[in-house]
Amino acid sequence: MRRFWNEKTRNLKPYVPGEQPRDRKFIKLNTNENPYPPSPAVIRAAKEAVERARLYPDPDCLILREAAAEYYNVSIDNIFAGNGSDEVLALAFMTFFDSHKPILFPDITYTFYPVYCNLLNIPYITAALREDFSVPVDKFMGFNGGGIVLANPNAPTGILLGLKEIEAIVGSNPDSVVILDEAYIDFGGETAVPLVKKYENLLIVQTLSKSRSLAGLRVSVAIGGLQLIEGLVKVKNSFNSYTLDHAALAAGAQAFRDVSYFNEIRDKIIQTRERTAGNLREMGFTVTDSKANFLFVSHRDINAEFIFHYLRNNGILVRYFNLPRINNYLRITVGTDNEMDTLIDVLNEMLSSADNKGMTPK
To answer: What is the pTM of this model?
Structure first.
């Protein structure tokens, strides 16, 4: 018991981030980081911005919002900027949800959502994904509650909902805010940003951590109607006016503008993902149809936790969730071609060893 903690703090179960190792060098395939660096233009912009470090950054994040507005073809007033999508999501939960009505999200999804709810006293219910891990759209239609949160593509499954299904959900809940977490949308999906002009209850959250290689600078935007953005700004300025520093603002703005580099890196990751998924299936793995920068896999014979520890002992980190329904799956970030080839080689060695010893740890 920590005697100075209040009751809420004592009862919190915080989000557990992926391991960031310090003791040895690993192939890191556990936190969905981009395996490639930001573009040279982005790095230059960040370095130049550091020269202004003695001054507070722009609390309105204008250069980033202008670049995002141009990229998404919306007004700058439709853009909110924040310190990574985790912060933007937390601010959105504070702004739009309360303790009076429960919100709804899938039972298997980003595990930060229930953490926000418990921290902010927001009741929630979950809708069970289907056996193939697809989202049961009918369960989200006409929900008479406090709001809806969907990750698309979903995490950790990587499965995508189409725009027609998204629009059906948003349109059937006109009196509730629908938050669409598009952290991985660039790797195979079509963003729902155009729907923002049609539906005032839709808020889309995107991050530059994944497809634009800025995980270390914590840059994210939300796109929504004027009323939603105004609410986010009001809450943000009651919490921390200066959420993004000079380097993050400059790098984020340049990352939106450097479209050719973005396309090149994204396409490279997609190609590596599809090639690796094929290799894993040939080795007896079940692999979901991921449209993200990770693969969600389970082997027909070998237990996922066993594989997780085997890989770690051989210098490769992946993510294992000891949670109902997915405790025999691993989430594997798509790395470089060389990193994924090493992963396949180590897994083949593991399977050969299991065959030789008659092992079936599952």
So the answer is: 0.94
